[in-house]
Design goal:
The complex is a heterodimer of chains A (569) and B (196). Chain A is an alpha/beta fold and 569 residues long. Chain A contains 23 helices and 16 strands. The chains are: A alpha/beta (569), B mainly alpha (196). Chain A: This is CDC45 cell division cycle 45 homolog (S. cerevisiae).
C-alpha cells in the first residue's frame, strides 16, 4: 500500500527498531541512503546497510538477515516485482520500499500489511483499480450450488425448468468470468508493458527530512545529486526534470536565506549551494574546455565530431567565439580570467548559430573552500565511475563503499579519483561511438537497431557494467540519428550487446527506447526480452533491477535475437 | 665486567617498545643475584681482612664492589618496576582478563600483584557514581555519541549484542551499533569506524 504520511507511517514506526537497509547500486539510491543514514544517526536508530546489485543479491541478503530484523527498507529495488512471492518472508516482516522503478507491481500496491510503498501517488502511476484485477472466486460457485440444493427440494414437475435456468445461469457466469479474465489480462498487459522511472528516491527522503525539520545542506546536496543522476542517465523526461529542479530550487533558496550580509558573512569553508544555468559540457571545470566539448554527448553529436567536417566545424566554432586554441586546450582552472568571465554567454550565443539551442541546462553547483567547486553532474559522473570501476580484485560491494564515501565532503581525494575515472570512461565512450559509426557497426534488424561490441574492442571491459553500457547506448543512438540519412531508422529503438565475462561466455544486453525530442522514456524491452528468452529457452539471467538489462550466454545470442525480431515485428 | 647482566635486563625491556611485556627473565635475574652474592661475599672477606690486618689498599676494591652492588640493585628494581607499570597499562587497555600469551610472560609474584591491582581498581570504580559504579576503563575521553557507524572489513559471522539481538557481520556491510560493543572488534580489526 502507499504511505500517505511518511513521518507517522514510516519514520516513527522504525524509530525504535532495528532496521535493515538494502540499497541498490545506482547513484540515486546511494544519495537516498546517505540522507537516511544521517537521519538515523540523529535519532540513534540502529541499522545495518547491505549493498545489493540484483535480484539474487537481494534474496541472499534477505535470507541472511531475516531472522535478525523485522523491518526492511529497500531503496531503488523491489517495487516492480511481486516481492512477497520472491522472498517468501514471515508474516511479521514489514518492507518499506522507496523505488523509482515503475510500474509498481499490483500485488505490492494492494497488499495492506507487509508492503509499504514510500512513493508519491502522482498522476503517472496509473494503477488499475482493485476490482479489475482481484476478485473473490468462491462467491459465484457457492451461491450456485446453494440455489441448486434449494431447488432440488421442489416438486419434480417444475424441476426441468428450474434446472435449465440453473444451467443457463451457470453458463452465463462462466462466460462472464472468462470475459473478466480476458479483460484483466489486457489491463495488466497494458499496465506492465512499459518500464519507466518516477520521482527520485533521494528527493523522497529529503522531503522526509524536511518534514522532520532535520534537513541540512548536505542532505539537500545529495537530493540534488540523486535528481541529476536521473537526468544524466536519461531516466526521466525533461519536463519532470525541470519540475523537480524547481522544487529543489525552493529548498535551496530557503537554505540560502541565512542572512549573508556584510557583518555576518559565512566562512568561505561553509558549504554553499547555488542555482546555475550552466553549460551542458560534461566535467568542463575539471578538464580543459576543448576536451570537454569533444567528449560531451550533446556537442559531439551536434558537430558530428567523428567526421573531418565535424572537426572543422569545431575549429570554426572556437574561432567564432574568439577563443585561442592554446587557451582552450589548457586546464580550465588555468584559463585566462578574461575568457572565463563571460564564457557561458559567449558559448550560448555561438552555439545558437550552430544549431545547438539547449547548450545550457538548469542545475546546481556547490562550493566550499577556495578550491572546491563542483556541479551536480560532475559528482554524478565521478561517483558512477567509482561505482562501476573495473579494477581487478574489487568486488561490487567494495566499489559501493568507495562510491558511498566519495559523496561525503571529507573524502575529496576519492572524489577526484572518481573524476579521473569518469574522464577515462567518457573518452572511451566517444572513441567507441566514433568507431561504431565509422565502421557501420549498427545494423537495422527491422523493428530495432542492433550493435554488438566485439571482444577485442579497446576499453570493452568498461562496458561490461550496466550503467556504462546504457550510457554508451544512448550516446550511440543520438550519434546514429545525427549521422544516418534513413528517415525510418531515426525512429527505431536500439539494442546493444557487449561481452560481460569472457570466461563464463556471457554477454550483457541492453535495450533503449527510440530517440526523440518529446520521448517519454518508456522502455518496452523488459517484457520483450523475457518473452524472447522464454520462447527460445535461451539461458538468460534477468538479474538487474532494470528489466531492460539482461545477461545472456554468447552461444544463444543469435537465436535470442531472431526471436526478438519476430516478436517485435 | 660487573653489572653487565643487569644492564642486559634493562636493555631487553628497552627493546620492547609499545608497552609489550617480554617473558620474565628468570635466568637473568638469578645470574644478577648470584653476581651480587659473589660480590658481597668478596666484600665481606675483604672488609674483615682490612679490619683485622689493617690493609688499607683493599678499600678501593671494596668501594668498587659496593658500587657494583648498588648498581645491580638499582637495575633490578628498575626492571621489576617497569614490568609492573607495563602490566598496569595492560589492565587499562585489555580489561581484567589478559590474553594467554601475556599471562605466560608473567611470573607468579607478578600474577599475584596483578590480581591485587585488579581488585583495588575494581573496588575504586565501584565506589564512584554514587554507589552504582562507573567503568573508567571504557572510554579514555568522554564519548561524543552512544552509537557509532562501523564498516565490516572481513566476514566475521554472527555477533550478539546486549539485548540478545544477533547481527550478521558480512564484508562491506555497514552497521550503526552501540559504541562499547564495537570497541573490542575495532581493536581486533574486524570493524572499522566510519567518520563521515
Amino acid at each position: 500500500m502507499f504511505i500517505t504520511d511518511i513521518r507517522k507511517d514510516f519514520y516513527e514506526v522504525v524509530a525504535n527498531q532495528r532496521v535493515a537497509l538494502l540499497v541498490a547500486s545506482d547513484i540515486d539510491a546511494l544519495c537516498a541512503c546517505k540522507i537516511l543514514q544521517v537521519l538515523f544517526h540523529c535519532d540513534q536508530v540502529q541499522y545495518t546497510l547491505v549493498p545489493v546489485t540484483g535480484w539474487q543479491d537481494l534474496s541472499t541478503a534477505f535470507l541472511e538477515h531475516k531472522e535478525q530484523f523485522r523491518y526492511f527498507v529497500l531503496i531503488n529495488c523491489g517495487a516492480n516485482v511481486d516481492l512477497l512471492e520472491m522472498l517468501q518472508p514471515d508474516d511479521d516482516s514489514v518492507f518499506f520500499i522507496c523505488d523509482t522503478h515503475r510500474p509498481v507491481d499490483v500485488v505490492n500496491v494492494y497488499n495492506d500489511s507487509q508492503i509499504k510503498l514510500l512513493i508519491k501517488q502522482d498522476d503517472d502511476l496509473g494503477v488499475p483499480s482493485y476490482d479489475d484485477i482481484f476478485r473473490d472466486e468462491d462467491e459465484g460457485e457457492g451461491s450456485d450450488s446453494g440455489n441448486e440444493s434449494e431447488e432440488g427440494s421442489e416438486p419434480s414437475g417444475k424441476r426441468r425448468r428450474f434446472d435449465e435456468g440453473a444451467v443457463e445461469r451457470r453458463i452465463e457466469r462462466r462466460r462472464a468470468k472468462r470475459d473478466w479474465e480476458a479483460r484483466r489480462r489486457e489491463i495488466l498487459f497494458d499496465y506492465e508493458q512499459y518500464e519507466y522511472h518516477g520521482t527520485s528516491a533521494s528527493i523522497m527522503f529529503f522531503e522526509l527530512a524536511w518534514v522532520l525539520t532535520k534537513d541540512t545542506k548536505d542532505m539537500l546536496w545529495w537530493a540534488v545529486i540523486g535528481l541529476t543522476d536521473q537526468w544524466v542517465h536519461d531516466k526521466i523526461t525533461h519536463m519532470k526534470y525541470v519540475t523537480d529542479i524547481a522544487t529543489m530550487q525552493r529548498h535551496v533558496s530557503r537554505h540560502n536565506h541565512r542572512n549573508e550580509d556584510e557583518e555576518n558573512s559565512l566562512s568561505i569553508d561553509c558549504m554553499r549551494i547555488s542555482f546555475e544555468y550552466d553549460l551542458r559540457l560534461t566535467l568542463y571545470q575539471h578538464w580543459s574546455l576543448y576536451e570537454s566539448i569533444c567528449n560531451s554527448c550533446y556537442t559531439s553529436c551536434n558537430f558530428k565530431l567523428w567526421t573531418l567536417n565535424g572537426q572543422k566545424k569545431l575549429q570554426e566554432f572556437l574561432a567564432d567565439m574568439g577563443l585561442p586554441l592554446k587557451q582552450v586546450r589548457q586546464k580550465f582552472h588555468s584559463m585566462d580570467m578574461s575568457i572565463k568571465e563571460n564564457l557561458r554567454d559567449v558559448i550560448e550565443e555561438s552555439s545558437n548559430k550552430y544549431g545547438m539551442k539547449d547548450i545550457r541546462i538548469q542545475t546546481f553547483g556547490v562550493h566550499f573552500g577556495f578550491k572546491n567547486r563542483f556541479l551536480a553532474s560532475d559528482m554524478v559522473h565521478a561517483t558512477t565511475a567509482l561505482l562501476e570501476s573495473t579494477e581487478k580484485d574489487e568486488s561490487a560491494s567494495d566499489n559501493f563503499i568507495k562510491a558511498l564515501d566519495s559523496l561525503s565532503r571529507s573524502n575529496l581525494d576519492r572524489l577526484h579519483s572518481g573524476i579521473d575515472l569518469a574522464k577515462k570512461k567518457l573518452m572511451a565512450i566517444q572513441q567507441t561511438v566514433a568507431s561504431c559509426i565509422c565502421t557501420n557497426l549498427i545494423v537495422s534488424q527491422g523493428p530495432f537497431l542492433y550493435c554488438y561490441l566485439m571482444e577485442g574492442t579497446p576499453d570493452v571491459k568498461l562496458f561490461s557494467k550496466p550503467m556504462a553500457l546504457t550510457l554508451l547506448c544512448k550516446y550511440l543512438l543520438k550519434a546514429f540519428v545525427q549521422s544516418t540519412r534513413n528517415k525510418r531508422c531515426k525512429l527505431l529503438p536500439l539494442v546493444m550487446a557487449a561481452p560481460k565475462d569472457v570466461e563464463k561466455g556471457s554477454v550483457i544486453v541492453v535495450g533503449i527506447p527510440p530517440e526523440s525530442e518529446t520521448s517519454d522514456k518508456k522502455n518496452f524491452f523488459g517484457r520483450a526480452f523475457e518473452k524472447a528468452a522464454e520462447s527460445t529457452s535461451s539461458r538468460t539471467l534477468h538479474d538487474n533491477f532494470d528489466t531492460s538489462i539482461i545477461t545472456l550466454k554468447t552461444e544463444d545470442r543469435s537465436k535470442f535475437l531472431d526471436a526478438l525480431i519476430t516478436l517485435l515485428s | 665486567m660487573f653489572c653487565e647482566k643487569a644492564v642486559e635486563l634493562i636493555r631487553e625491556l628497552h627493546r620492547m617498545t609499545d608497552g609489550q611485556l617480554p617473558a620474565f627473565n628468570e635466568d637473568g635475574l638469578r645470574q644478577v643475584l648470584q653476581e651480587m652474592e659473589a660480590l658481597y661475599e668478596q666484600n665481606q672477606a675483604d672488609v674483615n681482612e682490612a679490619k683485622a690486618e689493617g690493609r688499607a689498599e683493599l678499600i678501593p676494591s671494596i668501594k668498587l664492589r659496593h658500587c657494583c652492588l648498588l648498581r645491580n640493585q638499582r637495575c633490578l628494581t628498575a626492571y621489576l618496576y617497569d614490568r609492573l607499570l607495563r602490566m598496569r597499562a595492560l589492565r587499562w587497555e585489555y580489561g581484567s582478563v589478559l590474553p594467554a600469551n601475556v599471562r605466560f610472560h608473567m611470573c607468579a609474584e607478578e600474577v599475584q600483584w596483578f590480581s591485587q591491582y585488579k581488585k583495588s581498581l575494581a573496588s575504586f570504580m565501584r565506589s564512584l557514581g554514587g554507589g552504582e559504579g562507573l567503568d573508567l576503563t571504557q572510554d579514555m575521553k568522554p564519548p561524543k555519541s552512544l552509537y557509532i557507524e562501523v564498516r565490516c572489513l572481513k566476514d566475521h559471522g554472527e555477533f550478539e549484542i546486549d539485548d540478545g539481538t544477533v547481527i550478521l557481520l558480512k564484508k562491506n556491510s555497514q552497521h550503526f551499533l552501540p559504541r562499547w560493543k564495537c570497541e573490542q572488534l575495532i581493536r581486533q580489526g574486524v570493524l572499522e569506524h566510519v567518520v563521515s
